[in-house]
Amino acid sequence: MFHAFSEAVQLGRGCVRILLTAFEPYDQWSENSSWLALVELLKHRPTNLELITRRYPVHLQRMQEKLLEDLSKPLDAVLHLGQSPGASAVKLESVALNIAGCLEEQGSELPCLIDAAPLAYRSTFPVGLCADRLKEHQIPALISYNAGTFLCNATLYLSLHQMVSAGASTQVGFMHLPLATEQVARENLNLPSLPISTLATAVYSILDVLASASKTAGEQVA
């Protein structure tokens, strides 16, 4: 499915530069579906799209250091990927909160990611268009209003804050992926999943939306 789709779309009309990130395995998970999807995508890497790919550590301070370094580069868009065990659809996150930690662990004391910064930011992705594009390719998708309160949320919030503070027009968004079917089979788990090829197709289709939007914006500025 992914191979056929990658030949059908036309990505990167012009030189569009996108930061694409995923996470390393964590807790009981020996693999992370976000990274599995990114690796699969790179087997059919878009030839006319400049991708900067990263795998971030599951550690807030180290992740933040690497993220801020990556965001210092000129970028047209930023797409972060994360794993969402138990999800049956791709989730396009629409809101990021200024919270640095897990609600369950912090109780009533919720430290901020950035002091004196806004409580929340909205994703600058066209999340509705992205969801529609995924559904066109028969990939279950939904718009989510809760990216959690730890690393996935932090990655989205910090990226949005950096771009807003810099006055940049760079689009920033986060996409949570279900577990990969191959993960579930290897671990003998009874959880919702999608094949790695389908996850990669989902990422590819969103990159296509971003590339088209970035190209259109560039033409309007010119």
State the gist of this model:
By secondary structure, this protein is of the alpha/beta class. The protein has helices at residues 2-8, 33-42, 60-71, 103-106, 127-136, 151-166, 181-187, 196-221, and strands spanning 16-23, 49-56, 77-83, 90-93, 95-97, 120-122, 141-144, 171-177, 179-180, 193-194.
Give an overview in words.
With 222 residues, the protein is an alpha/beta fold. It has one domain: Aminopeptidase (3-Layer(aba) Sandwich), CATH 3.40.630.20. The protein is 41% helix and 22% strand. It has 8 helices and 10 strands. The strands form 3 sheets. The protein has a 6-stranded mixed beta sheet, with helices on both faces. It has a two-stranded antiparallel sheet with strand order 5-6. Strands 9-10 form a two-stranded parallel sheet. Strand 1, helix 2 and strand 2 form a beta-alpha-beta unit. Helix 2 packs across helix 8, helix 3 packs parallel to helix 6 and helix 5 crosses helix 8. The radius of gyration is 17 Å and the shape is globular.
